[in-house]
Design goal:
By secondary structure, the protein is an alpha/beta fold. It contains three helices and seven strands; from the N terminus they run H-E-E-H-E-E-E-E-H-E. A hairpin with a 2-residue loop joins strand 1 and strand 2.
Length: about 160
């Protein structure tokens, strides 16, 4: 049984969509199920996803030139890997524009700490329970989130001087 089949069996109600192509397995889940699903991925011996390879976000504002409407503006995308079983899984969670917030994974995978800080800094998605959610790439006085598709590329930012 593939990891995707195992997840479908256990969390069928929480799954929005799945697909697999040439071993590239993806599952899209409801935001409220994130913690339960990722704990299952990590703690189930036949899955044993012990590596969080990446965590990022996608902004679907004007997706496909506005011809395709997504239900949520953002998706948080995580890539997991099992060293023991040599399998991978992509997990996507839709995040709305009104209150872009999702649970942290930093207590389960310490590497999520920096990934989540980057997503916060660039997209403005908050991670509930994160121990130190602050900017990591931009300076603290930076206004906005530079990877949002509606961020004005020519926006002037406050000037900051050297720390004295």
């Amino acid at each position: 049984m593939t990891p995707l089949q195992r997840i479908q069996e256990k969390f069928s109600i929480e799954i929005i969509e799945t697909h697999a192509f040439r071993g590239d397995e993806t599952v899209v889940i409801r935001p409220g199920a994130l913690r339960t699903v990722v704990k299952f991925l990590k703690e189930t011996p036949e899955l044993d996803f012990n590596v969080l390879m990446d965590l990022t976000a996608v902004d679907y504002l004007n997706f496909a030139g506005g011809k395709i409407k997504k239900d949520s503006r953002f998706e948080v995308v995580s890539h997991f890997y099992s060293l023991k079983h040599n399998h991978r899984l992509r997990l996507k969670v839709p995040v709305g524009e009104e209150n872009p917030e999702i649970d942290t994974l930093s207590d389960l995978w310490p590497s999520a700490n920096w990934y989540e800080r980057e997503v916060w800094d660039m997209f403005g998605i908050r991670f509930k329970g994160h121990p130190n959610l602050k900017r990591i790439l931009m300076y603290e006085e930076f206004k906005g989130h530079a990877l949002r598709k509606d961020y004005p590329f020519n926006k002037r930012q406050p000037l900051i001087g050297p720390a004295i």
